[in-house]
Design goal:
about 300 residues; single chain; binds zinc ion; Rossmann fold; five-stranded antiparallel β-sheet; alpha/beta; globular
Length: about 300
C-alpha cells in the first residue's frame, strides 16, 4: 500500500479506537462544549477574535508545576489549537532543564536509532533538501541531531551545526561539526545556511513566529526550513470536542504549547519574509504535519 494509503488507514484506526474508548469514558463530554469566547490570539496576534473552547487538559508530565489547570482553545481565525494559559517560564524550566529527555529506548537502541535516521533521510531525499557539499545546515532544538546526521550520511562534506538549550546530547553526536549550547541567539546572525530543520521543536515555543524571523536572518537565499510537529488527533474537526485529544499520543501538557495550522504557518512565514512551499498533515496517521519554508 502506498504511504498515503497507510497513513489514512492508521488515521481511521486511531479515530475509531478513540471513539470506542470515548464511549466508555462517561465523565468526558461526547461533543464539543458549545462555549465560544472572544479574546486576543497569542499566535496570529488578532485582537478580540472568536475562540472555541476545545476542553480541559491536565499535565501529562509529573512536574511538579506551579500551574496544573489548562484548557485547549482554537482560534477561529488562524486555526491554531493552543494551551491556555501559557505555561510559566518556571514550569518550562522544570520540563527542560531539570529532566533527562533522551534516555528512553528509541535513543539507546541501535536498531530504533537507525529506523529514525532512515525515516528522516527518506524525507529529506524526497523533498530534495539535502544540501550540496560544503553547504551548511542548522538543526534547531537538535537533541541527537537526526537531520544533520541524515545530511552528513548523504553528503559527507556538508557542514553541520546543531543548536540546543541543553548540553545533554552535545558530546554524543560525532556527525555534528559545531554543537552550540544556548538559545538561537548564540548562533551568529549571518545568512550562511542552505537548510535549517526543526523537527518536533516548534510546538514547544511560546513565540514560534519570532523563531521564524530569527531563522530567516540565518538562511541563504533559496535556503529551506524543514519543520515537523504534532498537528491534531487524526481527522479531528472542531465539533468533535476534547475526547480524541485526551487519547492523542502527541498531547503533552504543558510541553506542547501549540498545535499549529497551515493557515498560521503561511501567515507567519510571510511576515518573516519566507514562503510556505510544502505542507502535508498526513504523517503518522494524520497526526503530524511536515512543512517546508523557503527564503526567496
Ligand atoms: Zn489566531
Amino acid at each position: 500500500m502506498p504511504q498515503n494509503g497507510r497513513n489514512r488507514l492508521r488515521a481511521w484506526q486511531l479515530k475509531s479506537l478513540a471513539a470506542w474508548h470515548g464511549r466508555h469514558d462517561s465523565n468526558v463530554p461526547s461533543t464539543a462544549e458549545s462555549t465560544d469566547i472572544e479574546r486576543d490570539c497569542r499566535f496570529c496576534a488578532a485582537a478580540r477574535v472568536r475562540h472555541h473552547i476545545v476542553g480541559n487538559v491536565a499535565p501529562t508530565h509529573p512536574g511538579p508545576f506551579e500551574h496544573e489547570d489548562y484548557r485547549l482553545l482554537r482560534c477561529s481565525l488562524c486555526d491554531v489549537v493552543y494551551l491556555d494559559p501559557q505555561p510559566s517560564d518556571r514550569d518550562l524550566q522544570t520540563l527542560y532543564q531539570d529532566s533527562v529527555q533522551f534516555s528512553d529506548k528509541t535513543y539507546s537502541d541501535d536498531a530504533a536509532a537507525l529506523r529514525v535516521l532512515d525515516s528522516y533521510a527518506r524525507r529529506i531525499d524526497r523533498l530534495g533538501l539535502v544540501p550540496a557539499a560544503v553547504q551548511s545546515i542548522l538543526e534547531v532544538g537538535a537533541g541527537l541531531a537526526w537531520v544533520a546526521r541524515a545530511c552528513k550520511q548523504r553528503s559527507p562534506r556538508v557542514h553541520t551545526v546543531a543548536q540546543d538549550i541543553s548540553a545533554e546530547c552535545a558530546a554524543a553526536c560525532p556527525w555534528v561539526d559545531e554543537y552550540v549550547v544556548g538559545t538561537i541567539q548564540v548562533v551568529s546572525r549571518e545568512p550562511r545556511f542552505a537548510l535549517a530543520s526543526m523537527t518536533h521543536v516548534i510546538e514547544h515555543l511560546t513565540d514560534p513566529a519570532a523563531m521564524l524571523v530569527e531563522l530567516e536572518a540565518r538562511m541563504l537565499r533559496g535556503g529551506c526550513i524543514y519543520i515537523t510537529a504534532p498537528h491534531r488527533p487524526p481527522l479531528w474537526k472542531p465539533c468533535d470536542g476534547i475526547r480524541s485529544w485526551l487519547r492523542y499520543s502527541y498531547l503533552h501538557v504543558p510541553a506542547h504549547i501549540a498545535y499549529l495550522s497551515q493557515t498560521w504557518l503561511r501567515q507567519a512565514a510571510m511576515k518573516a519574509r519566507l514562503e510556505l512551499v510544502h505542507w502535508d498533515e498526513t504523517h503518522d496517521g494524520h497526526q503530524v504535519f511536515e512543512a517546508v519554508l523557503r527564503k526567496p
